[in-house]
Amino acid sequence: MPQESISVFDMFKIGVGPSSSHTLGPWRAALNVLEETELLYGLENVTHIQVLLYGSLAKTGVGHGTDIAVKMGLLGENPETTDVNTIQEKMNHIALSNQLLLAQKYPVEFNPAEDIVFLYNEVLPFHPNALTFLIVLKNGQTISSTWYSIGGGFVIKEGLQNKGDKNKVDLPFPVNNAQDLIFWCIKTGMPIHEVVMENENAWRNEEETKAGVLKIWETMKACIYRGCHSKGELPGGLRVRRRAYELNKKLIGNNTYSGFEDWAEQIKKSSGNFNSILDWISCFALAVNEENASFGRVVTAPTNGAAGVIPAVLNYFVIFCDGNEEDKIIRFLLTASEIGCIFKKGATISAAMGGCQAEIGVSSAMAAAALAESLGGTQKQALMAAEIAMEHHLGLTCDPIGGLVQIPCIERNTMGAIKAITACQLALQSSPDYAKVSLDKVVRTMWDTALDMNSKYKETADGGLAIHIPLGLSEC
Ligand code: SF4
Hints:
The structure is a single chain. Helices cover 50% and strands 10% of the residues. By secondary structure, it is an alpha+beta fold. The strands form 3 sheets. A 5-stranded mixed beta sheet has the order 5-2-6-7-8. Strands 1-9 form a two-stranded antiparallel sheet. The N and C termini lie far apart (46 Å). 52% of the residues are buried. The structure holds iron/sulfur cluster. Iron/sulfur cluster binds at residues 305-306, 351, 356, 359-360, 398, 400, 405, 408-409, 412, 459.
């Protein structure tokens, strides 16, 4: 198996909802196209751009904001820093003027209704999420640039699929699968998070990695807090009411607070029983995914559709398990990221390839392992927790109603979080040496299941809930 170098910052990327493969990936592809066009031809020589969306990007592209994402990318907006409150205004401006400012500087003719083409029945062989940019130059030449959005915001250009990993660095402890990981843990005596940190040191120094991971947590926290304090309906036409706001209000009662830390303190003081802790975990997950569905700022973990599982479990650890220390949070996220890498290398984190097991299943496995290690479990117990979490997501289909990342996606994050905690507890109470199923076997099984899964359950909105509850008939 070729070695792929994936950093914690590849797994956890700050971006904009609602989808890592259908929003963040196409957005990043458009930014790459801007960069290569500028280098090779000069953006001032472009007169027109057309974008072709294939397969899953066409079928669920409108619901997932793919059309918006490519326009934002062509405008040169950075998904990590763009002001999400101005996205609609920018889209309106393009639609009214039929003009797009490439890299915010070079005007080109652009009619969104004609220049974003949804090819519903065409799929390119390499991956169901493909898009082609057709760039017309002043000299009449048309340049074609095709990209694949392969899940979690990762993109690959056509022709470079087998050209090796441009991100590749020599890692002291290369890991392709769980067996490699446990080998290094046993050989060095290090916990998983230390192995990961040693590998991260190949990209940058430890202080930078720690600062970057804490920024990821700050973004997750801000997302949870915003989601718990935003009311109304989600965009897209399904008329789904945001629930985290009401749930937070009900659970927090008359306690007053200002800001996240104060709020977290109140939650800790006022929540003693199992039911209320369970409610809070759901509330955190709902909050993140309601923000995600509203084009809010989220962190891919490992995808946007599954962005609520890890923040919910980490916030549970922070508030209810005395995890509120920077080092503990960093360790949690490093371990989680390594499990995500193992799934990406051995199977997929793309719902268009593997259904929802590749999104919620993987995020749940990541959270389960991180929580198990954070609560004092051994490396083998952490891997066992990841295995258990995925084992009980195998076969989970992707069937978003109306192609929107709302139903079943938002609630599904609550399920992924609770399953992660249960998987962690089961592993902590078990001896991994007696386990019958290894993490590598479950990764393999997930991939086989992905290959066998009917394409209508792979982010196409052609099957499952998506056809039984069409957009117009929704009662939500
Ligand atoms: S059903 Fe699962 S995989 Fe599909 S869009 Fe929703 S969260 Fe993502």
